[in-house]
Amino acid sequence: MRIDLHTHSNVSDGTEDPEVLIGSAVAAGLDAVALTDHDSTAGWDRAAAAARRSGITFVPGMEVSCRTDTGISVHMLSYLHDPEHVGLRAEIERSRTARLTRARRMVELMSVDYPISWDLVAQHVSVGATVGRPHIADALVTLGVVRTRSEAFERVLTARSPYWVSHYAPHPAHAVALIRDAGGVPVFAHPSASNRGAVVGGADLEEMIDAGLLGLEVEHRDNPPAAKLVLRRIAGERGLLMTGSSDYHGDGKPNLLGENLTSPETLETICGLATGTPAI
């Protein structure tokens, strides 16, 4: 079986509708795929319906944006949680509201130097989508300021730019606890992706494990080879699951569906551990 447990639709920062993403997964030869939009489960029903029609296994998921006390960004994958869980849902809504406020402020700052407006950014946001920097990047591409999303992040939207605005995000250990309480399976996404910024050290990881972390996304293009060896060792020593995924965003990133995979045994374990919602 070919299993990819990390993808994004245009419900967050991907470029494909959930139904189209499922079709892309089938075309890529996948047997199972997870939809893990940022801080949203709004694409689950559409993806599930498309998966039933296509005969592919669908794993409902979400990628929760987190931040440590020292300001390091952490992304936490949540598989098969209850989307109606009061605590997790409230925390996600708080994050989504903060992201929207932050995006508006960044656009306001950028409008001094670029002909960008919130109306233009909004044209790149799908109904119900979690608003984020990728939508601002798409507006900059439309304006011709940059050629690609990646260039926008490197030149204009970096944390070192004068337009940077921080936003609220839960502590990763708190997110792990909420995911577990919602019957989900928390897996630390691309934990050694140093090309994205600072990565967490041992103390933060230990806090996540103590809170109930169940896995590490080891096979991901942003984890350097040497770091993968360390992650495998940690997973072995602490009894954590190891997953592999593409982090597919459609045309938004060069990542290809199925470029990294999760074993059938690991997916079976995830399904066995979850009590929130079933795979389809």
- Major β-sheet annotation: 7 strands, mixed
Basic shape: globular
Strand order across the largest sheet: 1-2-3-4-5-6-7
Succession of helices and strands: EHEHEEHHHHHEHEHEH
**What is the typical, i.e. mean, pLDDT?**
95
Kindly state the number of beta strands.
7
Cα radius of gyration in angstroms: 18 Å
- Poorly predicted runs of 5 or more residues: none
Instruction: Give the helix level as a range of percent.
Output: 40-55%
Structure notes:
There is one protein chain. This protein is an alpha/beta fold and 280 residues long. 40% of the residues lie in helices and 13% in strands. It has ten helices and seven strands. The protein has a seven-stranded mixed β-sheet with strand order 1-2-3-4-5-6-7. The protein is globular, with a radius of gyration of 18 Å. The two termini are 15 Å apart. 48% of the residues are buried.
Features:
13% strand
In short:
The chain is of the alpha/beta class. It is built from 10 helices and 7 strands. The protein has helices at residues 18-27, 44-54, 86-110, 118-122, 133-143, 149-155, 172-181, 202-211, 225-238, 264-273; strands at residues 3-4, 32-35, 57-67, 73-79, 185-188, 215-219, 241-244.
